[in-house]
Amino acid sequence: MQRLDLKQLLSQKLSPQQIQFIKLLQIPTAELETRIKEEMEVNPALEEDEPDDSEEMERDDDDSDDSDDPDASLDNDENTLDEDFDDRSGSESEMADEMPEPEIQPKDEGPVDSETAADNTDLDLSDYLNDDEIAGYKMQGDGPGEEEERDTPLADTSGSLLDSLLDQLHFADLDERQEAIGQQLIGSIDGDGYIRRDLSAIANDLAFSQNLEVTVAEIEAVLRVVHGFDPPGIGARDLPECLLLQLERRPQDENTVNAERILTDTFEEFSKKHYARIQQKLDLEEDELKEAINVILKLNPKPGGSGPSGLGKTQYLMPDFILTNDNGSFNLTLNARNAPELRVSPAYTEMFRTYDKAAKKDTKMKEAVTFVKQKLDSAKWFIDAIRQRQNTLLRTMNAIVELQREFFVEGDESKLKPMILKDIAQMISMDISTVSRVANSKSIQTEFGIYPLKYFFSEGIATDSGEDASSREVKSILKDLIGKESKERPLSDDKLEKMLNARGYNIARRTVAKYREQLNIPVARLRKEL
Q1: Residue 341 contacts by C-beta under 8 Å, 6 or more apart in sequence?
Q2: What is the DSSP string of 127-181?
Q3: How, if at all, do strands 321-326 and 443-446 pair?
Q4: Which of 91, 284, 299, 528 has the fewest CB atoms nearer than 10 Å to its CB?
Q5: What is the DSSP letter of 11?
Q6: Does residue 259 have a pLDDT over 90?
């Protein structure tokens, strides 16, 4: 039986502009350049704004003229920029709260229906003929390019470890069959420098991929050649073999021989630091055992990371913010090195002018203009999203600097205050999810180093004074206590709990164990040394 029901629903949907803004907000500066290039490739109406030399010369002449004017300080670029920034920030905050729905979807690039174009006999082009509406998005928060290029580390362009190993393979005295096996072995090395696959599986790979039938004995023979390559220990199948390969290249003195005996006969006891059992099993004096262990501790357990750039390219952390301290006055700027100044292509505005002045406006011309209008809307929305992204990043980071001011002045981890996402969201009148997107995968460069924004968010620990202390502060004290402990008798979690309680921190033993694990500090038994 058919029924006809009437329902009234109230729902909220994000506009395409809001979705674009959210996606741009959560990506870091290092990925912003790629995102902008992708947008410029799919949207020809969007281009990078490159000022002409004539404009720069005129700007220099204006600056020289202003220097002679005693009232020039009232109308300088900085004051004008401040006014522009205030006007923009106001409009952007309103746009963030309520963004208009688009008339035409920017991603719809399909053919325009001729009937639809015929219905729209008059296209309103006034919004697209005004140059002021399509300005770039360069803002006051953008830092100077020269300083950023000097302070921001560049990626290493040297060859990878894989290339280095292949070069060494070419210089080895191998025939064509053995060289093919060597290339397969080198290709099987993981990021740590180990070959964790079974040699029989590698033999199957050679049979299927290169139609080369080999035995495990042949692979082992070539593997021994690879073991002689640099860095030492490369191509090992487990940790003991990796360390033994490195010991083989050391002078074969008494300490090296004892170290080889420890790894060969008592590796399990060594990994658990049962030194008494090692002494009893190998009949070593305490001094001999200590010297042998010192030799082992100097070896590299991950040779894959010791090449020119490892098995991959070296990646440097690129800060999203740069904070400088000028005699107690903080100056926060955005790292805009990978965000070129964008604008809408003037050629498309000229196309609208030509259409507006045309006496005869046929259907094909209207279809072309409608398509260009879609691209122009998409370009303007993208520029607006970049503006809002910069404004939101600055507002959020300024709030963090204000709450953690003592830390940014001294760089002392114990000065960090308890702070959660909700605190920042209330200060800047934004949603917690927005603050979370800003804090995720973003970092700031300070005078004391580069810190991820998540570093400044921490929970509170109750103290005897009634005030909450940051968990970062407790972790810093815990790290100092463990660093000053006796390595012969390390402090257990129970003792660490009592020492923290004596300092006024109300903390449980399980919380001490959690913080210790977060600091990548092993248990007391594994911290013991001779």
Answers
A1: 48, 49, 136, 137, 138
A2: GGS-GGGG-----TTBPPHHHHHHHSPPPP-SPPHHHHHHHHHHHS---HHHHHH
A3: parallel
A4: 91
A5: -
A6: yes
For 37, what's the count of Cα atoms within 13 Å in the CB-facing half-sphere? 6
pTM, entire model: 0.55
Rounded to whole angstroms, the Cα distance separating 242 from 227 reads 9
- Give yes or no for a contact between 88 and 387, defined as CB atoms under 8 angstroms apart: yes
Query: Mean pLDDT across the stretch 179-204?
Result: 91
Q: Are strands 449-452 and 329-334 parallel, antiparallel or unpaired?
A: unpaired
Contacts of 41 (CB under 8 A, 6+ apart): none
| Assigned token pair, 513 | 């164990």
d(CA 113, CA 55): 43
Question: 321 in helix, strand or coil?
Answer: strand
Question: 3-state DSSP call for residue 306?
Answer: coil
160 close to 308: Cβ distance less than 8 angstroms: yes
Give the tokens for residue 374.
């879609």
Q: Write the DSSP assignment of 71-122 as a string of letters.
A: TGGGG-HHHHHHHHHHHHHHHHHHHHHSPPPPSS-TT--SPPPHHHHHH--S
Is residue 255 scored above 70 in pLDDT?
yes
| Cα 473 from Cα 466, distance rounded (Å) | 16
Q: How far apart are CA 397 and CA 15, in angstroms?
A: 26
Which of 48, 377, 135 is closest to 369 using CA atoms?
Answer: 377
Give the max Cα distance, the chain: 104
For residue 211, the SS3 value is coil
Scanning 266-343, the segments in alpha helix (DSSP H) are 267-271, 275-282, 286-297
Q: Map residue 235 onto helix, strand or coil.
A: coil
Query: 227 near 238, Cβ under 8 Å?
Result: no
Of the CA atoms within 13 Å of residue 139, those in its CB half-sphere come to 26
**How far is Cα 156 from Cα 441, in angstroms, rounded to an integer?**
21
Three-class SS state of 379: helix
Q: Can the peptide bond before residue 303 be classed as cis, meaning omega within 30 degrees of 0?
A: no
Report the C-alpha gap between 141 and 393 in whole angstroms. Answer: 10
115 within 8 A of 30, measured Cβ to Cβ? no
